[in-house]
Design a protein that fits this description.
mainly beta; single chain; 4 helices; 14-stranded antiparallel β-barrel; Porin
Length: 357
């Protein structure tokens, strides 16, 4: 328990200090703090997994598939065998968001994970006035995150996870890159699980590249001379996220079907399973958010999901459905989620998850 308490204290203190440093540099003339615009690398906040987003992202305490590498990496210790996930998200304005992850058991109590996230725009026409020679050319936005994870089960009730990831933002001929870290913990008690995670801890990022360079006129001794110059670019923070979640197996509590199962019966065939999840998230650049999600599963074959995210300007209600194939050597899960927005249309997600038994 001393090791557990020490890990939790270090995680909370480190995340709190990092967020305080970010927030301390932002403020209005009256001293009022305003989070909006305080961080870059916004693609790191886009949720992954159709299952999780069907529950409005209330997933940090469930986290029992490869998308746990995004929500709470401590959850992958509950995965039996080899498991992989691919998620495609149809984002606004022709952008696409892709996530692929794999989980490997390295011992009875430890798991390793690898994930790759990409956010791409496709070709965008230049509309600059200063350089008319580029009016018929295009540029693109490509953001990438590649992470490696180690998670372990310290006791029957407590597990932890640590992720180190390389992050790169790319716009045309400019890019910024750095190393960030995620930390997660999970606590299990009978039919309830508690999850806590901190994401995107690390140093500031700063753009560099050819598109920052240009030639300009300089007056020397009443004569114009062209000289090489470059734009000055300020460094920026990644969006730090702290999540605290809870999930309960209502099937057990309400119908008297309780079985001591730390995985919330994910790997057991039961005719009914009903989960209720709650997530609180505080971020370094937007107000705090609360997500409530639920999932009903029939005979471990068909799942229906719904959720709502509070205090989020773009997203609110969400829903989804999933089907599962159970074979002798592998399981396959196909999930879909839909998230209407207030002004930008509908976000559709499709996920395919495979597990080798």
């Amino acid at each position: 328990m001393k090791h557990i308490a020490r890990m939790l204290a270090i995680t909370i203190a480190g995340a709190g200090l990092a967020m305080a440093q970010q927030q301390g540099t932002q403020g209005s003339s009256a001293g009022e703090f305003r989070k909006v615009g305080a961080a870059g690398a916004q693609f790191l906040k886009i949720g992954v997994g159709a299952r999780a987003n069907g529950m409005a992202g209330a997933f940090s305490a469930i986290a029992n598939d490869p998308t746990a590498l995004f929500y709470n990496n401590a959850g992958i210790v509950d995965i039996d065998g080899y498991m992989g996930n691919f998620t495609y998200t149809q984002w606004f304005g022709g952008y696409s968001h892709n996530f692929i992850a794999g989980i490997i058991p390295i011992s009875e109590k430890y798991r390793a994970g690898l994930s790759v996230t990409s956010f791409t725009s496709g070709p965008i026409p230049f509309t600059t006035v200063e350089n008319e020679n580029r009016l018929n050319t295009t540029y693109s936005i490509t953001d990438v995150a590649i992470g490696g994870t180690l998670a372990g089960q310290l006791t029957d009730q407590f597990s932890f996870g640590v992720t180190v990831k390389y992050v790169q933002n790319g716009i045309g001929g400019m890019s910024a890159s750095g190393i960030l870290a995620d930390v997660g913990t999970m606590y299990r008690f009978r039919g309830v699980r508690l999850g806590f995670s901190v994401s995107n801890l690390g140093p500031q990022l700063q753009y560099s590249g050819a598109d920052l360079n240009f030639r300009t006129d300089l007056i020397r001794e009443l004569q114009y001379q062209q000289v090489d110059a470059s734009f000055l670019v300020n460094p920026y923070n990644a969006p730090i996220s702290l999540k605290a979640g809870l999930v309960a197996d209502l099937t057990s509590e309400l119908l008297g079907m309780y079985e001591s199962d730390p995985n919330l019966a994910v790997n057991k065939e039961r005719e009914h399973r009903w989960l209720l999840a709650l997530d609180f998230e505080t971020l370094s650049d937007v107000p705090e958010q609360l997500a409530i999600g639920t999932e009903y599963t029939w005979k471990d074959l068909l799942s229906l999901r719904a959720g709502y995210r509070f205090n989020q300007s773009a997203f609110g209600l969400s829903g989804g459905v999933g089907i599962r194939y159970i074979g002798s050597g592998f399981d396959g899960m196909l999930d879909y989620s839909i998230q209407p927005t207030t002004t930008l249309g509908i976000v559709n997600r499709f996920s395919l998850t495979l597990r080798l038994n």
